[in-house]
Write a structure and sequence with these properties.
Elements: H1 4-12, H2 17-25, H3 32-43, H4 49-61, E1 65-70, E2 78-83, H5 85-104
Antiparallel strand pairs: 1-2
Length: 105
C-alpha cells in the first residue's frame, strides 16, 4: 500500500502530465521522445511510453498543441509538437492553481 505522500506525488506528476508537457513546449518545439526525457531530467519522474503519447494526443485534439513534421538527414520525417496560444493560456491557469494550493499550506 502506498503512503499518502506517495499518492500525492503520483497525483501531482503522472496524473497531471499535461502541465509538464505544456511547460516544456512553452520553451520550444519537441519530439515526443525528447519530452519524456526532459520530464525525467527536469521534473524527476519518468512518464510511461504510451502515457506521454496519450497526453499529446489529447492536447492536440483540444487545440493546446500543434503537430508538425521535420525532415532528417537520414530516414523519414519526424513529428514534433509546439504549444499553441490556447495551450499557453491553459498552462498559465495550471501554474496559478499550483501556486495557490502551495500558498495555502
Amino acid at each position: 500500500m502506498r503512503s499518502p505522500s506517495e499518492r500525492l506525488q503520483k497525483s501531482l506528476t503522472g496524473d497531471n502530465l499535461w502541465i509538464y508537457t505544456l511547460s516544456l513546449l512553452s520553451r520550444g518545439e519537441m519530439y515526443p521522445y525528447e519530452i519524456r526525457r526532459a520530464i525525467e531530467r527536469e521534473f524527476g519522474f519518468r512518464p510511461g511510453n504510451v502515457t506521454a503519447y496519450i497526453v499529446l494526443k489529447k492536447l492536440l485534439s483540444g487545440g493546446f498543441v500543434e503537430r508538425g513534421r521535420k525532415g532528417k538527414e537520414k530516414g523519414p520525417e519526424r513529428g514534433y509538437y509546439r504549444i499553441t496560444r490556447k495551450g499557453e493560456d491553459e498552462l498559465a491557469k495550471g501554474k496559478r492553481i499550483y501556486r495557490k494550493m502551495a500558498e495555502r499550506f
